Structure formats: C-alpha cells, structure tokens
C-alpha cells in the first residue's frame, strides 16, 4: 500500500551518479564555456506566413493540463516523438488551481504579470508547466532531430475529418495526424438571466476560468466597492474566500450567493456544509444561501440582482461560478458520441472515442471500471487522464484505474482532500476527532516542505505518518468537525472519501476505493487513517 | 468513548485517540505488485525503466529527453564495478544538451530561489506510489528541470 523503497533506490542511485559526474573540477570551466544562448527562438505568436506542419504524428487539441500531461507521456514513451498542441488561448499550458487560490494570496504586486507565487515555505513557482524554451516552434516540428512538443496558440479547431485523419483550423489550415487527443476542456456556464440582461450587465460579469479572467478580476477587485459571486461550489467558494481576504485590506464588499443551503452543498453532507459556510463567512464573505436569481438589471451605475424570494442585492460586479459546459464542438463533424447524462465526449475505459482519437480531461465522459461512467472536472483528473491517454496513444491499452483526487482550501485554516464520488445525496459516515493547531493545510505544507498540496501528496510517500511526541495543544473549537474522514456510500460500498483537515493519507483512501469492498464497520476503516496524529 | 449521532442519512461518529488505538480489523485486499493496471514506479517489474514515471519530472520528455534516456539507460544496465563508468560519453552529451537550456536545467552556479518552473510537481498526480525522496533537493546540483523531481 505504501511506497516501495526499492524503487526509490533506483532513483537515488541515478542521481547520486549524476551528482558525482557533475562535481569534478573540470565542470565549472566546461559549464562556463559550454553555456550558449538558447539556440531555438522562444515560442511566441505564430505568424501566418511561416510554414506550419501539415502533419503531426501526435496532434493534441487543447492546451491545458490534460494535453500537457499527454504530451509528456507521449514523449517519455515514444523516443523522438513529434507532438503538436493546438490551443485557442494565447498562453502556453498552465495549471488552473492557483488562479482561484495561491495567486490571490501573493504579496507580489506584479503577480498578474509574472503569474508566479511564493508558497508558505518560500518556494516560488510559475503556473506555467514549462517555460517557452521547453517547447519547439511548430515550424520546426518536421525537421527537429529528436522531436519535441510544439504549441500552436491562438488557433481553434473547427472541423474534424475522422476518415481522413485530419482537422481544419479556423484559418482553413488543415493538419493531418496519426493519433489525436481531444482535450478541449470547456467553457464556463452562465446564467440565462444574465445572458438576457443586456450589454451593461454582461460587461460587469466575469465568467471565471482562464488567465485573462484572473487578470481582469484582479483589476476589478481593486476598482469596485462590491463584488458578488454566484455559485456555491469549489470555484465560487474559493474565489469568495480569496476576495474575502482582500476585503479586509480594502473596503471591498464580497457577497456569495447560491441556491443550496450552504457552501459545497452538493458535495458535503449538510452538517459539514453548514460548518463550512460559517468558515466562509469568517473570511469576510456575506453569504446568501437558498438564493435563486430571478433577474439582473443595471440601474444608477449599479447591478441589481433580484432574487426569487424578494431579496435585492446591489453590487458592482458579478462573478459567475455555476459550472462548466464541456466542449463538444467537434462531435458533429467528427462523428463522435456525446454523453447525454454527463456531457462531454463519450469514451471507453481506455479513453478512446474512435480509432486514433482519445479524449481526456474535463471534456471526457469515460467508463471508470470501479465507479462507473462519469465525467470529472478536476486538475488531478486532467493529469491522470492526460497521462493515460498519452500512454494509450503510444500503445499501452490501459484502462482508467489510478483514481484521481481533488482538494480545496478555504483559506489557510481549513482544507480537505477528496477522492472518488463525493455527492452529498449519498449516505455518508463521518468519523471525527478534535482538531489541534497543527491540523491545517498550512501546517501540512510546512511540515512536508512543499508548496502546493499536489506536490506534497506526491513527494511525501516514503515516510508514513509519525505521531508527534508531545501532544499538540488543543485549539478551542466551537465546532466539532476539526478533522476526520467522511465516507460516501453506494450500496454499502465506499465510493468516495473526504479527508477533512487530515493530510498525506490519500494512498489509504485510494486503496479503499480501489478494493470496492463492503465494510461492516466504517469506524474500523477510519482507524486506518490515524486521524488523531499529524 | 466514541459517540455517534445521525442526521438523516448521514451518520457522524466522534472518536477519541484511545478509541482508535486498537488496531483496525478492516480487511483490505492484498495488492498484486505485477498488476499491469497499476501506476508503476521508476523501475518496472521486468527491470525496465519506466520513462513515464512522475519521479523523473520532465527529464525524459524535454528537449534533452533522448540524451537523458541514453545516459540513464546506460547507467541502469551497467554491470561495471564502478556502475556507470562506461557511460561518460552519454553523460557528456546529456550535460551539453542541458547547458543549452539553462532555464529548464538550472546548473548549480546560477541557482536561485526563482528557478525554472517545473512541470513535475504540478503534473504528478498526487501519490503516484512511486518513491520520491528528497535526497536530491532543489538546492543541489541535480540537473532536473525543477524542484522536486527526484
């Protein structure tokens, strides 16, 4: 269940060898002498006049997390692979979670430019997976000796010819492929009432998803008096908390409204959703629950949100976080099946839609052998499914098996990680202990010495939880739900688990989901998590 | 003592440390180390190198991926007394390549806090049960393309 020490020795041995090779005295001189300018020009926007490849052995549509993960997987497995990513965004592949979390907490005033952020442990990183020098120019794809990954930005794929194994771009360019991945994600949903509300309202509404949305919302937050977030799920709650924190420094009013009874109402059992809502309020957010928007108007330089129960909210700017519409633009031309229950392209357990076409990430409705057909909109799933698609595009034929996880932080004091199906309509069993000051996301990353939670989960495998010698002081908590584990059940089998303020235990959770067994006593299962320890 | 309450379909149990001290009697299914579906570590059961291992970061997929693979393969299969001693040329090719991309493969000399962005940590699915240790931290001379790809 836990890490295999044998594997780490191989890694260690190699790096020890590399270190040794790099330390002889000659190295410094050769490094100075050998340092050259990067031979390849950095990737910028691609002028139409240069010759783009007419064929890409591996063509990846969409330039997000799933696509990048697939690109890396393909390059790792197929030596010299030539991979072309086509994206309608102007940006190179980047990770999305910090756009609604870490970037908002940065002290650096130029963060909207650099998109870098310092973690609590001082480590800094960019949201971009790789700098421009990692990529090759699309025009060089055919000629470069050892292959590489090229990114064609600002181009949309408008037509797919499955029989001819080629796609057409919005500038009428055609690119043929051997293997194609569709990883086009989706676009944020909007409320009909806002779409119908006219230009003045739409101008003051942000549909949040991309870098440009982060930049514009950041600017807005410095220039208005009141922002209202519509939506009580992950994105809405995270943005609310991020803006709420900002509101303490300025006189910005932050309102969050949603139809459910509490934050994360579709995910957390009611008692926990209520607890979470109180937490969100403490972050400086005015929460309006059970709020259904009837209409939105622009009047006297303010937006007026009329709720169905008669409440009226006046605000300057709206952020809609009401879900994602998966992109299935190519279904018609490509003759690809779309799933009517979950949306997205329908693919099998190996993520394949049709011959030579795979789908990964938010747009993929796939067959999960253990949990059934589903579609998942989380970062880690994009990574897992992107990697898997890349493996299968290079001949692996593996089904989706390694269960992805997700996480959310509501400020530095409360965080949870989850895996599987966590739907609040399922019966749940929650096992809780009292929290101490040590049980926060901040403490978890400080202890593991890494920045982002996803890093910490990956890196910290060789060590298992160690009980602290001196008991940590118990924090005075009105709430009972300091830390614990919540099981989601379907037909008596655990299909989802939330680790509530308990970190670095995901391997155990993953194992329980994978087994798919009926457990008579979930308290016994909860013991496996050592929730009382760090 | 633990106590329990129900709120509709949701059950809530509160447990003390003592309640959880006795070992769990929950039964877990034994893992098959050769399960082809499972995520593999750096070395596959048959002894081959798993180039897609997240622990390698982007090493095998970047611009110097081919050189890296050759160097590491040579080292891995080396049977010499001083392991890898016959791989100097491969290593040199790798190093030369990496010097062309200082942003991706920072050398010790110009290492500072804001090193090249790494896709490894961002990309690695949490707890791929591959062993990743901090034997080579980001401050070392590791030629990795980022912080924690050890």
Automatic annotation (TrEMBL), chain A:
Keyword Mitochondrion assigned to the entry: answer is: yes
- Cell compartment(s), UniProt: Cytoplasm, Perinuclear region; Mitochondrion inner membrane; Mitochondrion intermembrane space; Nucleus
Q: Which residues form the Mitochondrial apoptosis-inducing factor C-terminal domain?
A: 389-515
A Pfam family cross-referenced in the UniProt record is: AIF_C
GO biological process assignments: apoptotic process; mitochondrial respiratory chain complex assembly; positive regulation of programmed cell death
Q: Where is this region: Disordered?
A: 438-462
Q: Which regions form coiled coils?
A: none
Q: Which cofactor does it need?
A: FAD
Write down the SMART domains for this protein, in alphabetical order. AIF_C
Q: How does it assemble?
A: Monomer (oxidized form). Homodimer (reduced form). Upon reduction with NADH, undergoes dimerization and forms tight, long-lived FADH2-NAD charge transfer complexes (CTC) resistant to oxidation. Also dimerizes with isoform 3 preventing its release from mitochondria. Interacts with XIAP/BIRC4. Interacts (via N-terminus) with EIF3G (via C-terminus). Interacts with PRELID1. Interacts with CHCHD4; the interaction increases in presence of NADH.
Please give the name of this protein: Apoptosis-inducing factor 1, mitochondrial
What is the source species? Oreochromis niloticus (Nile tilapia)
Tell me what gene encodes this: AIFM1
TrEMBL record, chain B:
Which InterPro entries does the record match to this protein?
A: CHCH (IPR010625), CHCHD4 (IPR039289)
Coiled-coil ranges per UniProt: none
Question: Where in or outside the cell is it found?
Answer: Mitochondrion intermembrane space
Q: What is its main location?
A: mitochondrion
Q: Which GO terms describe its cellular component?
A: mitochondrial intermembrane space
Region annotated Disordered sits at 102-150
Q: In its UniProt entry, what is this protein called?
A: Coiled-coil-helix-coiled-coil-helix domain containing 4a
Record the organism. Answer: Oreochromis niloticus (Nile tilapia)
């Amino acid at each position: 269940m836990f890490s295999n020490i044998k594997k780490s020795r191989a890694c260690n041995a190699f790096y020890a060898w590399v270190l040794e090779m790099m330390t002889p005295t000659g190295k410094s001189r050769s490094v100075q002498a050998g340092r050259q300018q990067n031979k390849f020009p950095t990737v910028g926007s691609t002028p139409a006049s240069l010759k783009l490849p007419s064929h890409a052995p591996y063509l990846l549509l969409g330039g997000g997390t799933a696509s990048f993960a697939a690109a890396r997987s393909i390059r790792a497995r197929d030596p010299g692979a030539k991979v072309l990513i086509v994206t309608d965004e102007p940006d190179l592949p980047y990770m999305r979670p910090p756009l609604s979390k870490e970037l908002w907490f940065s002290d650096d005033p130029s963060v909207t430019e650099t998109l870098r952020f310092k973690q609590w442990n001082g480590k800094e990183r960019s949201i971009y997976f790789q700098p421009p020098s990692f990529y090759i120019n699309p025009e060089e794809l055919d000629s470069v000796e050892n292959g590489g990954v090229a990114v064609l930005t600002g181009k949309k794929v408008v037509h797919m010819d499955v029989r001819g194994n080629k796609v057409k771009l919005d500038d009428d360019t055609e690119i043929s492929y051997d293997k194609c991945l569709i990883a086009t994600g989706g676009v944020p949903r909007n409320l009909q009432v806002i779409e119908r509300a006219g230009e003045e309202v739409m101008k003051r509404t942000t549909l949040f998803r991309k870098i440009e949305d982060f930049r514009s919302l950041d600017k807005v937050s410095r220039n208005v008096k009141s922002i209202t977030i519509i939506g009580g799920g992950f994105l809405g709650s995270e943005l609310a908390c991020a803006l709420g924190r900002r509101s303490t420094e300025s006189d910005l009013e932050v309102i969050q409204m949603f139809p459910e009874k509490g934050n994360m109402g579709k995910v957390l059992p009611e008692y926990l959703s209520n607890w979470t809502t109180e937490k969100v309020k403490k972050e400086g957010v005015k929460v309006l629950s059970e709020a259904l928007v009837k209409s939105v108007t622009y009047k006297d330089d303010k937006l007026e949100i009329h709720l169905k129960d008669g409440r009226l909210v006046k605000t300057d700017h709206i952020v809609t976080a009401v879900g994602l519409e998966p992109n299935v633009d190519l279904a018609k031309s490509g003759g690809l099946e779309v799933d009517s229950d979950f949306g997205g392209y329908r693919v099998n357990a190996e993520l394949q839609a049709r011959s030579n076409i795979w789908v990964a990430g938010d747009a993929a409705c796939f067959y999960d052998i253990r949990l059934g057909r589903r579609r998942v909109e989380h970062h880690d799933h994009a990574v897992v499914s992107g990697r898997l698609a890349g493996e299968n595009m290079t001949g692996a034929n593996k089904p989706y098996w390694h269960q992805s996880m997700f996480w959310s932080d509501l400020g530095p004091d409360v965080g949870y990680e989850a895996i599987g199906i966590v739907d609040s309509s399922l019966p749940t069993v929650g096992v809780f202990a009292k929290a101490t000051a040590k049980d926060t996301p901040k403490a978890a990353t400080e202890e593991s010495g890494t920045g982002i939670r996803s890093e910490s989960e990956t890196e910290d495998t060789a060590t298992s939880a160690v009980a602290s010698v001196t008991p940590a002081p118990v924090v005075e908590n009105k709430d009972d739900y300091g830390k614990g584990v919540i099981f989601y059940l379907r037909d008596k089998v655990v299909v989802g688990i939330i680790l509530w303020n308990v970190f670095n235990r995901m391997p155990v959770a993953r194992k329980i989901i994978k087994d798919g067994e009926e457990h008579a006593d979930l308290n016994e299962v909860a013991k496996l998590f050592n929730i009382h320890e760090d | 003592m633990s106590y329990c309450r129900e709120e509709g379909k949701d059950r809530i149990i509160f447990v003390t440390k003592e309640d959880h001290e006795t070992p769990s009697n929950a039964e877990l299914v034994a893992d098959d180390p050769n399960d082809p579906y499972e995520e593999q570590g750096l070395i596959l059961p048959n002894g081959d190198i798993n180039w897609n291992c997240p622990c390698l970061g982007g090493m095998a997929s970047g611009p110097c991926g081919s050189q890296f693979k050759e160097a590491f393969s040579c080292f891995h299969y080396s049977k010499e007394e001083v392991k890898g001693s016959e791989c100097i040329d491969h290593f040199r090719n790798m190093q030369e390549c990496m010097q062309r991309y200082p942003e991706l493969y920072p050398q010790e000399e110009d290492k500072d806090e804001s090193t090249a962005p790494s896709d490894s940590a961002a990309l690695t699915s949490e707890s791929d049960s591959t062993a990743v240790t901090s034997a080579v931290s980001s401050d070392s001379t590791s030629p990795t393309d980022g912080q924690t790809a050890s």
